[in-house]
Amino acid sequence: MSKAVAGLDGKLRCAWCATAPEFLSYHDTEWGFPVHEDVRLFEKLVLEGFQSGLSWRTILNKRENFRKAFHGFDFHRVARFTQKDVERLLKDEGIIRHRGKIEAAIHNAKCAREMVEREGSLAAFFWRYEPKAANLAKPQTLTTSAESIALSKDLKKLGWKFVGPTTMFALMQAMGLINDHVEDCVIRAQVAKVRKAHGKKS
C-alpha cells in the first residue's frame, strides 16, 4: 500500500498500519526510525528472516516470545547456542518452529559477533548501504533496491543466511536506512527530523 489513510485521530498515516490493530503503535514508534544499536539491529534482522513466507503480523504478535527464546537477541549469547538449544526452540510454541530459520538465527549470531570484531559494530557495516537521496523511489513502491541487493550479496559472501534482497529491503525500511513512510503520513516528518539529527542523507 502506497497511500495514506486517516486514523481515529484524523491524522494521515501509511495505509498498511490500519490493516491490523497492533500495527499502529509499531508504525508510529518504530518503523522507519533510525536504529544504531547492534542488539536491535540483530533483532530486526532475525525477525525479518523468520518473516520470510509469513505475514509481519504473525511475527509482531510473537515478538516478545522471540525475545525471551533468544535471550533478548543478545547475539553474543545466541552465538553460543548448541544443538540442545535448537531442539528446545523447535518445541517452543511461542515462536516460529522452523528448523532452518532457527539454525540460521544462531549461525547469523556467530556472523554478527565476527562482524563486530572486524567492523567495530553491526551499525558501522549496515549503514554503509544507506541509499543516496537521488536514488530513492516514491515511498512503498519497491520491494528491492540496488542497495538491498548489494547488502544481500555482501552478507552472503560473509556467510550470513536468510538475507535475500527482499528481506534486506524490508530490514532497511524497518531500521530507517530509508524513510519509506508515504508523503502524507504524519510520521514521515517525525522520522525525517530524527534522521536529520543523526546527520542522515534524507
TrEMBL record:
InterPro entries listed in its UniProt record: Adenine_glyco (IPR005019), DNA-3mA_glycosylase (IPR052891), DNA_glycosylase (IPR011257)
Gene3D superfamilies cross-referenced by the UniProt entry: Hypothetical protein, domain 2 (1.10.340.30)
Keyword Metal-binding on entry: yes
Keyword Amino-acid biosynthesis found: no
GO MF, any single term: metal ion binding
Residue sites binding Zn(2+) per the record: C14, H27, H181, C185
Superkingdom to which the source organism belongs: Bacteria
GO BP annotation list: base-excision repair
Keywords assigned: Metal-binding, Zinc
Pfam families attached to this UniProt entry: Adenine_glyco
Full protein name: DNA-3-methyladenine glycosylase I
Organism: Silvibacterium dinghuense
